[in-house]
């Protein structure tokens, strides 16, 4: 017997309330930091924007950080006091965002050493228990060069309060591996945080949970039926942009977090649909499975038996490796159009490089709307069978929002040598700001 509407309503209500029971909220980050260029627009304590039509209150001590209200200023003072003093001394040089962030972590680590965990900062886990990949970082010349630069700048900022180089290296490595960036609901990156609770969550290219921000507060929400966001054995987040091929995802994870991803999606041969190439027989629509890193060889089509020659497979693989992962918003549409026609010539329509080029072109020509984003995302995600996981009552709009959120997480963990390399304009405060 089919359930009555009332039964369905009750069931939906139960499902929704059980989702609420399975979310996890983190509201005690170890350290947070607003990016220097956004300090005028977001409260340095709660990390929310100024209320409509109002200006943020400027700290009279350093004339730099801003707060949305007196309460936020009062709550931030314990953490800001030593920073405020150092900012005054280093005037007119403004330290890099990363230096301010690491310096706050150093303050907390020093305090914990002297006083123990008086305030329950380490309730979720101990700072000392964080993974640091020190050996990998030592063997990474680019990262070490960045460390030396940050060490010099942090020493100049902290002066006699600077800790030993070994102790600072410990903070630097732990922060590099465990921090995440903070975004507004519109997806703008405004700062970074180290949250000991969130740092416990592992990565999967097929995440079971998504992250939603409210200022520095983070809500971990299940994406999959029955998953409890508090259970580390079933709750996985994504550290990277999951709308990419296995080769690209694993390369990114290895460069930034020094591990080889062994998630269910990376082990799924079906995932190679995202790097499939076209059958040489122009009347055949069968995808030929390969990937960027596979040894090139001729492939016989399972459907029409046509053999696609090794040289053609190699050409397609090289094209995939050559295509840029990001597009400059000022790039002329003609350039993308040209790349897209090359890609469509060799790559199968399920290929993620084709989808991304199409998205980039639509973005450049202003054709990218909520509807087209939704259909593009669905195209990509149905290719690697994520959709079967969605709760059945998810409407189109919820689905679209969720997918956008996953994309957003992708840009969430980017505190690393490539994405956080600071510019010198970041360093010097402009006269007008002082
Ligand atoms: Zn505030
Ligand atoms: Zn101040
Ligand atoms: Zn993976
Ligand atoms: Zn074929």
Automatic annotation (TrEMBL):
Recorded GO terms, molecular function? zinc ion binding
Species this protein is from: Diploscapter pachys
Q: Which Gene3D superfamilies match?
A: 1.10.220.160, 6.10.140.2220, SET domain
PANTHER family, alphabetically?
A: HISTONE-LYSINE N-METHYLTRANSFERASE SET-18, HISTONE-LYSINE N-METHYLTRANSFERASE SMYD
At the highest ranks, the source species' classification is: Eukaryota, Metazoa, Ecdysozoa, Nematoda, Chromadorea
What's the domain of life for this entry?
Eukaryota
Q: Which GO terms describe its cellular component?
A: nucleus
Signal peptide positions are none
Protein's name according to its UniProt entry: MYND-type domain-containing protein
Instruction: State the UniProt keywords alphabetically.
Output: Metal-binding, Zinc, Zinc-finger
């Amino acid at each position: 017997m089919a359930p009555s509407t009332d039964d369905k309503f009750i069931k939906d209500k139960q499902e929704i309330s059980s989702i609420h029971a399975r979310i996890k909220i983190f509201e005690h980050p170890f350290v947070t930091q607003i990016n220097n260029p956004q300090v005028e627009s977001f409260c340095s304590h709660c990390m929310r924007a100024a209320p409509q039509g109002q200006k943020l209150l400027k700290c009279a001590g350093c004339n730099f950080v801003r707060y949305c209200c007196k309460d936020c200023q009062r709550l931030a003072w314990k953490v800001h006091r030593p920073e405020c003093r150092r900012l005054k001394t280093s005037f007119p040089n403004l330290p890099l965002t990363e230096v301010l962030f690491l310096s706050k972590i150093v303050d907390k680590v020093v305090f914990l050493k002297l006083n123990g965990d008086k305030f329950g900062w380490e309730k979720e886990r101990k700072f000392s228990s964080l993974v640091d990949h020190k050996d990998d970082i030592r063997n990474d010349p680019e990262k070490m060069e960045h460390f030396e630069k940050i060490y010099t700048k942090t020493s100049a900022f902290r002066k006699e309060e600077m800790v030993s180089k070994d102790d600072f290296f410990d903070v630097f490595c732990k922060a590099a591996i465990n921090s995440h960036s903070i975004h507004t609901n519109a997806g703008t990156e405004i700062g970074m945080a180290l949250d000991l609770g969130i740092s416990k969550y592992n990565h999967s290219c097929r995440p079971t949970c998504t992250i939603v921000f409210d200022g520095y507060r983070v809500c971990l929400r299940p994406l999959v039926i029955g998953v409890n966001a508090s259970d580390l054995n079933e709750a996985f987040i994504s550290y990277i942009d999951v709308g990419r091929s296995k080769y690209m995802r694993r390369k990114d994870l290895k460069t930034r977090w020094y591990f080889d991803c062994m998630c269910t999606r990376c082990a799924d041969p079906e995932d190679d649909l995202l790097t499939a190439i076209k059958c040489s027989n122009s009347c055949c629509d069968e995808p030929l499975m390969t990937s960027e890193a596979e040894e090139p060889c001729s492939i016989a089509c399972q459907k029409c038996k046509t053999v696609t020659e090794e040289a053609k497979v190699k050409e397609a693989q090289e094209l995939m490796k050559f295509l840029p992962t990001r597009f400059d918003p000022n790039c002329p549409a003609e350039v993308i159009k040209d790349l897209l026609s090359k890609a469509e010539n060799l790559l199968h329509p399920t290929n993620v490089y084709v989808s991304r080029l199409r998205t980039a072109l639509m973005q450049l020509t202003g054709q990218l709307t909520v509807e087209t984003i939704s259909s593009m995302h669905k195209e990509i995600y149905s290719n690697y069978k994520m959709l079967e996981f969605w709760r059945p009552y998810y409407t189109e709009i919820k689905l679209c929002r969720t997918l956008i959120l996953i994309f957003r997480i992708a840009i969430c963990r980017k505190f690393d040598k490539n994405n956080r390399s600071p510019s010198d304009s970041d360093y010097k405060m402009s006269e007008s700001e002082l």
